[in-house]
Amino acid sequence: MLLRGARTPALLLAAASATLVNALGQQQIVAFAGSTGAFQLAGSSSSAGQILISSNDYWGVIRAAGDLALDFGRVTGTNYTLSNGASNTGPATYAYSPVNNKNNTFYSTTGTFSFSGPNYTDPSPSNTVIIAGTIGHSTVIDKLVSSKLLDVSEIQGKWESFVTQIVENPVPGCPEALVIAGSDPRGTIFGIYDISEQIGVSPWYFWADVPVKINKNIYALPGKKVQGPPSVKYRGFFLNDEQPALTNWVASHWTDTPYGAGYAPAFYSLVFEVLLRLRANYLWPALWSTMFEVDDPGNQPLADAYEIVLGTSHTEPLMRAQNEFGKFYPGAWAYNLNNATIDEYFRYGVQRAKPYARNSLWTMGMRGTGDTAIEGLGVDKIVTMLETLVGNQQRIVSEGLGVNISTVPQMWCLYKEVQTYIFNGLKVPDDVTLLWSDDNWGNIRRLPLLNETSRAGGAGVYYHFDYVGDPRDYKWINTVQLSKTAEQMHLAYSRGADRIWIVNVGDLKPLEIPISHFFDLAYDTSRWGVDSTPDWTEAWATREFGPDLAKNISAIVQTYGMYANRRKYELIEAQTYSVLNYNEADAILEQWALLHMATQAVYDKLDASAQPAFFQMVLHPVLAGEILHKIYIGAAKNSWFSGQKRNAANDAINYVLSASNDDANLTVRWNNLLDGKWNHMMDQTHIGYDGYWQQPMRNTLPAMTYVQTAFVSLAGHVGVGVEGSNATVQGDDKYHSNSGNTLVLPPMDPYGPISRWFDVFSRGTNSCTWTAASTTPWIKLSQSNGTVGPGNGTDSRVFVSIDWESAPKTPSVITVNITVTTPCRLFDKYGYKEPLIQLPVQLRSVPSSFTKGFVESDGHVSIEGAHYQSIAAPSPASNSTARRKRDSSTDSAAGNITYHTFQNYGRISSGVGLWPLNTEKLTVDSAPALEYSLYLFTNSSAANVTVYLSPSHNYLGDGTPLEYGIALYPSGGQQPKPTVVRPVGDTIGTNMPDGWGNAVADGVWGRVGNYTTSKFKVPQEGAYTLRIWTLLPSMVVQKIVVDLGGVRPSYLGPPESFLVGRDQSGAYNQTSFRSTVGAVGPADNATTGAEENGAGVNSSSGLLSLLVAVVLAVIGAAAM
């Protein structure tokens, strides 16, 4: 028999913490070494332990207990047995009457069928180590309660709660056992799977092939675990847009149903199990090429048997699949024209679902055909029709179930245009949950107002990790930024949207990480706060891959989320990132390359058993993201080079073709993984979107141009191009004066980038030498000569820098000339002069009295939003002295309302927004202000200040819109009346606010259009104060750009400007956004002198240092 180990002494083994596998975010109740008071669940015996349940418990509980018995086998090598306390008994059964799916307009059934549970073994009290059951439905649990051996008063009658504790002499012959008691069936199931997870079985053991953590010795820790109700009542996902990937995978594994691919119990049992292991409870089944209740009559009862709450999507009312009406019913899907037929359609849905009503959540309302808006009626008539419709739906449900409708869980998903009907007077019954939606891009459109929080039905959120529609599909692989999810869902929770959280997960398979994160936020919102993403990703990595590499994996996952979410892969095009300005495109590729190195290094260190899971969830997305960026940036370089007639344009074509092959081979690698287990899950096309929102039918490369290289350019063998320009000399093009030979570099000054560059390249047939020189001694060139052309020639990028110690000190503007010469001149010398490069140098300095703030360079100031100098407290006088200095620990200002830095958030580093999240609308007089200190050299009558804001919505309605105040004025002077800006316009019908498509594609309001741009006068050089008052939470400031005439086109905007008090001249690189202090991922300069005060910078620097350490380890290993 098992070693009973009545309270194992502490000196047995003390290394439990080193091998601990906690359930993610849950109280530890399992260890792998003995300690005082611990009870041994496994080890020191060849006998299998036994799990005891009661035969009168729910079938779903018994089934989950059978999973736990198998999970012990997965961990220890020996399956545990399951007993109901009686001998010679068959497995538990769940009986149901299958619906006749040959006639789906007249309800009938086809007899009685059943699902069988796990096999029972005769009772063995001496081997019983776990007892599980549901209060009021388990004889053994009820006896423990009545005998005072188990106190369940803290959970009794509560939703999905459980207690777990060691009980002595729980049943005759059993001296000790770990008892799990649930308040309801899912409470018990969650308690059971809590043990599974803690002993080392990941919820993703099947769907992501996470290896089981092997242990022979398992101990239950002393003490009582009391798990109360989840933060959000209904937590689920929606399988949507499932064609091609998921449907192709299903069709290749299971026989088709009479109506389509094999979306039947064999498939859905895997879905139900992972939902429950993730502590979720709610499902919207796949809909586009399937009919859940019709495809297989076992689907609906199986969900009930598993204790899954079944729902239907926003476009499928009253438990009927979207495709059923068009397939089985006559007439139009239009309630104003065909209400009698549609009411019968609804009645059938209620009849069919009635046996499973205990685990049903009813979708109310109606949209148009095929998940579109209702057409042919004015808004007022639609509102009247929908109110009549929902009243009839409630009556049909109440009569069909024979209950008071107020006792029935119902929701109305206010998706797209349906939300606007609320603004036009639509009255929703109080007992219906208002399921507000995001904009399909992770930005919640509407949340409860103060007068809506007391509704009996409450409120919830329908969220998206996958979408098909405008401005373009995104459904290939994971592009979710977890910190954005946390910010938005905490915003929802803070405003009382806590009844339902459901997320569109597309094919499910590529989204394991964001799904886990979403459900953990929903299960215990207080445990996983708005800033918890680093802790959560480390805990997740520890559970899946062990503690040794968990910090590295956490850094990789967070970094990937930022890179992938900057712009969804399907929206990236050749022109997305600038190849000319701010070294942007090259910096993007550098970031991906370094992330690739770091991720590959972790993969190589993992045990072979863990590599498939790591490949699927971490390495594959990183490789795929890097390859896709190579394709589009390579195409951009081809366009650039071909315009300059470079031979290298053809090399860019080959580079893109190679990347395309890499993309295909990566899919082949995926398909071959684990003997083809996941073949077809990567069938989704993702290259070649051409402006149309829908997926391309085949991956297609962007257009490229081939340069004929048989003959030399008319302008000679050697060409020169400079940073910031498409022009080339010598020769003619549309980018510079006809036959001109001069190109001008962007300016340099002590506060700008440490270098500029020019390219020397081949556009001919001969190998040619070249020489670059400047007569100015304090101008430094990284390369003064080279060879281009066939043979050993290579195109060269020459970096221009300045020795500021030797440069003149008198303020002035000097133009420095740099010549490029070559002996390879033939007939071109008769038409074109030799190239001349000019560099404007601005010799200037800020006064010693300016000790903290950002300095203009190159005609602009660029600031990361979280790098403010102080928070100005609300003041009736709004004077410049009413402020509180920044405090890195509290980020607070006077009063309870302040600003909060969201770490690892947005497109580069972080964001800053109003706090707390449930703050109501403020005015510029009642709101604190972010204060930034600037020193400006350029006088301008129209300085454009653009605020890059996360793409939020008017979530309190268009009558209470998002707004911010902004003022720019000379420091020390009287603050002028702020300009109040409303970036987000009204939502009208199916139309999103003006500019929304670009905002969600770009990840910010501000890159396109003038929605967040304000003009100010800068009358003279000097110190200026910039203040920004955000008047509602969810207006997260990512970046601010003050354009005094020098900003050039780019996707991410100029790199952050020099900050006096933080940066050192000549040390702050500033050549790309990678230089930004706090930028997520390895940067050009990890430190720049004095550290910026504030958690935002420090946290990102921590993430940075982890990635740098991994990359350096790879480089070091390669050098050995």
Describe this structure in words.
The protein has 1120 residues and is an alpha/beta fold. 27% of the residues lie in helices and 19% in strands. The protein contains 20 helices and 42 strands. Strands 14-13-12-19-18-17-16-15 form an eight-stranded parallel β-sheet. Strands 29, 31, 32, 35, 37, 38, 40 and 42 form an eight-stranded mixed β-sheet that branches. The longest helix has 33 residues. The protein is globular and about 100 Å long. The two termini are 53 Å apart.
Q: Please describe the biggest sheet, giving its number of strands, its sense, and whether it closes into a barrel.
A: 8 strands, parallel
Name the strands of the widest sheet in spatial order.
14-13-12-19-18-17-16-15
The termini sit apart by 53 Å
The number of distinct β-strands equals: 42
Shape, principal axes of CA atoms: globular
Average of pLDDT:
92
In percent terms, what proportion of residues is strand? 15-25%
Quick gist of this model?
This protein has 1120 residues and is of the alpha/beta class. Helix 9 (335-353) packs parallel to helix 10.
Topology:
Blueprint: E1 30-31, E2 39-42, E3 50-52, H1 59-76, E4 81-83, E5 93-96, E6 113-116, E7 128-134, H2 139-146, E8 162-171, E9 174-182, H3 185-199, E10 218-220, E11 225-227, E12 234-239, H4 245-253, H5 265-277, E13 282-284, H6 292-295, H7 299-306, E14 309-310, H8 322-328, H9 335-353, E15 362-363, H10 379-401, E16 410-414, H11 417-423, E17 433-437, E18 459-464, H12 482-494, E19 500-506, H13 512-523, H14 533-545, H15 550-565, H16 584-605, H17 611-643, H18 648-672, E20 718-722, E21 742-744, E22 756-762, E23 768-773, E24 779-781, E25 785-788, E26 796-802, E27 812-821, E28 836-843, E29 853-855, E30 860-864, E31 870-872, E32 884-885, E33 898-903, E34 910-915, E35 929-936, E36 940-949, E37 964-970, E38 979-981, H19 996-1002, E39 1013-1018, E40 1022-1030, E41 1037-1043, E42 1059-1060, H20 1095-1119
Parallel strand pairs: 3-4, 3-7, 7-9, 12-13, 12-19, 13-14, 15-16, 16-17, 17-18, 18-19, 21-28, 29-35
Antiparallel strand pairs: 1-10, 2-10, 5-6, 8-9, 8-11, 20-22, 22-26, 23-25, 23-27, 24-26, 27-28, 29-42, 30-41, 31-32, 31-35, 33-34, 35-40, 36-39, 36-41, 37-38, 37-40
Helix pairs in contact: 1-3, 5-7, 9-10, 12-13, 14-15, 15-16, 15-17, 15-20, 16-17, 16-20, 17-18
